[in-house]
Recover the amino acids of this structure.
C-alpha cells in the first residue's frame, strides 16, 4: 500500500479485533506520542489496570478495540464504541477514540484503513453518525480526520476528574 506520494511501500495490513496478547504493543503505541507519553505507562510489563480495561472492553459488545497488523506486528489501534441515544428517534452513534499508528508508518494509509473498517462497522450496526474528538495540539490529526470527511461541527468540552 502506498499513500500520499510517498515512495515507501508497506505490506498489506490486516484489521482485526485486539487480543489480550496485543496489549504490550497497544500500550507502546499509546505511549509513543507527545501527549500519551505523559499519561501512559511505557513499562515493558502491562499493568493490571490496562488488563482490567481490556477485559471490560472485550466483554461488552458495544465496545471494540481494533488493531492493524502488518508482518505479525501491531502497527495501529483504535477504540470504537457504540452509544445509544434518544436523539434521532432513538438512534445509535459510534465514537472513535485512542487512535494511534506507529510513527514510521504514518501517512501511508494505515490510519485510513482503520477508519474505513470502523466506519463500515458503524454502518453495519445501524449508527447514524460517527464522532470523535481530537486534541487541539494535534493539527495533523485534525487535518487527517477532515480529509476523511469529518466536520468540526461542535465544540467538545472535557472535565478531568482528578488523578486515578
Amino acid at each position: 500500500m502506498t499513500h500520499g506520494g510517498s515512495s515507501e511501500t508497506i505490506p498489506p495490513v490486516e484489521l482485526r479485533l485486539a487480543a489480550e496478547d496485543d496489549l504490550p504493543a497497544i500500550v507502546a503505541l499509546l505511549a509513543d506520542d507527545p501527549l500519551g507519553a505523559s499519561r501512559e505507562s511505557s513499562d515493558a510489563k502491562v499493568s493490571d489496570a490496562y488488563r482490567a480495561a481490556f477485559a471490560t472492553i472485550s466483554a461488552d459488545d458495544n465496545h471494540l478495540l481494533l488493531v492493524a497488523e502488518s508482518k505479525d506486528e501491531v502497527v495501529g489501534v483504535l477504540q470504537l464504541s457504540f452509544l445509544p441515544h434518544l436523539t434521532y428517534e432513538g438512534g445509535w452513534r459510534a465514537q472513535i477514540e485512542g487512535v494511534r499508528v506507529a510513527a514510521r508508518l504514518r501517512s501511508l494509509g494505515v490510519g485510513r484503513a482503520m477508519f474505513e473498517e470502523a466506519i463500515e462497522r458503524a454502518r453495519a450496526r445501524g449508527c447514524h453518525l460517527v464522532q470523535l474528538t481530537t486534541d487541539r495540539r494535534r493539527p495533523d490529526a485534525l487535518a487527517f480526520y477532515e480529509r476523511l470527511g469529518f466536520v468540526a461541527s461542535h465544540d467538545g468540552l472535557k472535565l478531568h476528574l482528578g488523578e486515578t
In short: Helices lie at 23-31, 48-59, 87-90, 110-124, 139-147. The chain is about 30% helix and 25% strand. Residues 1-7 have pLDDT under 50 and may be disordered. The first helix runs from residue 23 to 31.
